[in-house]
Amino acid sequence: xxxxxxxxxxxxxxxxxxxxxxxxxxxxxxxxxxxxxxxxxxxxxxxxxxxxxxxxxxxxxxxxxxxxxxxxxxxxxxxxxxxxxxxxxxxxxxxxxxxxxxxxxxxxxxxxxxxxxxxxxxxxxxxxx
Length: 129
Fold this sequence. Notes:
The chain is 34% helix and 24% strand. With 129 residues, it is of the alpha+beta class. The protein is built from four helices and six strands. The termini are far apart. Strands 3-4-5-2-1-6 form a six-stranded mixed beta sheet.
């Protein structure tokens, strides 16, 4: 069973909001086959704690407009790795250093990547985007 249309809609909206705040390396993974609690993991990076917080705020505001409220939020005070659980979508916003260290994409490498629109992919490290 693949991720629901609603989960993908929320993931794309969250990715666009993160991209607007210059998040890096935004990726959406369809984890619906592996987990029963959620359909999509959205992962994004910020270059510092302040940006991580701003990305989280933008994502929450964007999804609130679509009627999605966070069930749980963890890590915002530290600003290194913030997890926001919206039910269908779990958003991970990590400091770039922590993203490399924890390598969530590698842990979930068996899950299909959801193709995000170009305006929702964020900047790639080493580009002028």
